[in-house]
Amino acid sequence: MRKRNVGDAVHLRGLIEISSHCARQCMYCGLRQANRALQRYRMTREEIFDCARQAEKLGYGTVVMQAGEDDLLTAEWIAEIVQWIKCETTLAVTLSLGERRFDELKLWRAAGADRYLLRFETSDAKLFHTIHPQRFPGGPDRLALLRQIKALGYEAGGGVMVGIPGQSFDSLAEDILTFRALDLDMIGIGPYIAHADTPLGSGALRPTILPFEQVPAVEGMVYKMIALARIVCPTANIPSTTALATINRLEGRKLGLKAGANVVMPNLSPTKYRRLYEIYPEKACIEESAIDCNQCLRGQIHSLGRFAGEGQGGRGAVETLASILPDVSSRFAQLQA
Ligand code: SAM
Ligand code: SF4
Questions:
Q1: Quick one: CA dihedral 171, 95, 239, 40, positive or negative?
Q2: Which residues have CB under 8 Å from 274's CB, separation 6+?
Q3: Which ligand 1 atom sits nearest the alpha carbon of residue 280?
Q4: Residues 108-155: pLDDT tens digits?
Q5: Pocket test residue of 15, 25, 32, 71 for ligand 2, highest count of atoms within 8 A of CB
Q6: What's the pTM?
Q7: Which atom of ligand 2 is nearest the CA belonging to 98?
C-alpha cells in the first residue's frame, strides 16, 4: 500500500524546536507550564534562519518549526520568519505551534506557510479533556481547528499518542476513522512516554477506565497503528517519529518506515537546546549535531532499499527511483534486459 500510493521515497523534514516555553498544562508533556524543573529557551530569529539555511544545504525540502504555546512568539514575528524562509530558500514551511487563533493561522498562511501540525492526541473526548485542560473556558476544539486549518489551504497534520493511560482499543479504532474523516494530509503517530515530572507520568492523575481495555504503550502497537493509518489513508504523509526511536534506539525509525511510514524528521535544533526540549525523558538524538542526524537517517533509509525524497514532498507526490533518476533507471533496465 505504501509503495503503490506514495512510492519508495522517504521525505526528510528538518525539525526546529524554536521555543520550550508553554502556557498549557497538558498532563503528559514535560513542557507543561507547571514543570518548574525545566530550563526554558526561545531561539532567536538569526538562529532559526541558520537552521533553515542548514536544512537547504543538507538537501531537505521542508522545515518544521515547533514550539510550546508560547505567547511571546507573536503572530507578526512568526509571519516575518515564514516570509524570510519562503523568500530566501526553496523550502516548504510547516508550523506546529499549538492551538492558535484563526486570524494568526490566516496571517501565517498568507505569509507563505504551507502546512500546520496539530495532533488531536485521542478521539476519546472524555480522555482528551482529562489530560488536556483548556487554557480558556470554551477554548478551541482541536478537530474544529484542523478543519479550519484545511479550509485556509494548509496541508493539515493531525495524529495521536498510543498507550495513553485510560486509552481503549475502541478509541484507537475511532482515531483511525477520524484521520480519514478529516482527510488529513499528514498523520503523526507515536508512543506515549511517561514523564515523571507530569501528573500523568508520576501517577498523580489516574485513568478512569477498566485496566483490561488499556492500550499498551509499546512499539508493536505503534507499528500496527501506522500500518492501519496507511491502509485507511493511503496517500497521507506519515512520519516514523522520534518517540519511536526513543523507545527502540536501533530499529524504531526503520520499523516505523517498514510499517508504512514515508517521512522522517531529522533534528536541526542547535545541540545546546535539544536537551531542554524535554517533552519526555531520554529523547533520542539530543547529543548529535544536525550533520550527524542527517547522515544517520540517510544511512537508515538506504539500508531499507529506499531513498531520500527530492523537493518539498507534499501530499500526493509519488516519487519512484525512476522519476528522480530517469537516466540511471533506464540504464539499469537495459542492463537487466
Ligand atoms: N505545543 C504544540 C502542540 O501541542 O501541538 C507542539 C509541541 S508538542 C510537544 C508536540 C507533540 O508532542 C504533542 O502533540 C504530543 O503528541 C507529543 N508529546 C508530548 N508529550 C509526550 C509524551 N509524554 N509522550 C509522547 N509524546 C508526547
Ligand atoms: Fe505545551 Fe504542546 Fe506540551 Fe501541551 S503538548 S504542554 S501545548 S508543548
A1: negative
A2: 17, 267, 283, 285, 286, 287
A3: 23
A4: 999 999 999 999 999 999 999 999 998 888 778 999 999 999 999 999
A5: 32
A6: 0.93
A7: 7
